[in-house]
């Protein structure tokens, strides 16, 4: 069984450290990071790898996969922010 998710952060993922600074806005970044899960902004039928990597076990999709014993095989952890606060700070405009 496979779960619908992106395996690594896409080029324009808001959780990537190399995205355009301030484009998302502080409030929207905080709102997304408070969510239990987040779909990819490009492939809206798939879960966002960046959100899963950023939140880890706090992401509902990651927890579901663990309960079902389904390996997500996420890659690109080095591309995302090391903390929620760093991500929000990056997106301040």
How would you describe what is shown here?
This protein is an all-alpha fold and 93 residues long. It has a domain at 26-88. Helix content is 33%, strand content 0%. It is built from 4 helices and no strands. Helix 1 runs antiparallel to helix 4.
Write the layout of secondary structure elements.
Blueprint: H1 26-34, H2 49-55, H3 60-67, H4 84-90
Helix pairs in contact: 1-4
InterPro entries: DUF6283
Characteristics of this structure?
93 residues; mainly alpha; DUF6283
In short:
The protein has 93 residues and is mainly α. The protein has 4 helices and no strands. It has helices spanning 26-34, 49-55, 60-67, 84-90.
β-strand number: 0
Radius of gyration over C-alpha positions, nearest whole angstrom = 13 Å
Instruction: Note the total helix count.
Output: 4
Provide the succession of SSEs: HHHH
Q: What structural class do the secondary elements suggest?
A: mainly alpha
Largest sheet: none
Low-confidence stretches: none
Overall mean pLDDT score? 96
Described by the principal axes of the CA atoms, the overall outline is globular
Which range does the strand content fall in?
Answer: under 5%
Q: How far apart are the termini?
A: 41 Å
What helical percentage do the residues reach?
25-40%
InterPro entries: DUF6283 (IPR046250)
């Amino acid at each position: 069984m496979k779960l619908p998710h992106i395996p690594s952060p896409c080029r324009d993922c808001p959780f990537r450290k190399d995205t355009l600074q301030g484009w998302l806005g502080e409030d929207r970044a905080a709102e997304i990071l408070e969510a239990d899960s987040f779909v990819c902004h490009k492939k809206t039928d798939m879960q966002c790898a960046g959100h899963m990597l950023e939140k880890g076990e706090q992401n509902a999709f990651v927890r579901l996969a663990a309960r079902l014993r389904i390996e997500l095989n996420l890659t690109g952890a080095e591309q995302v922010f090391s903390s929620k606060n760093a991500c929000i700070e990056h997106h301040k405009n």
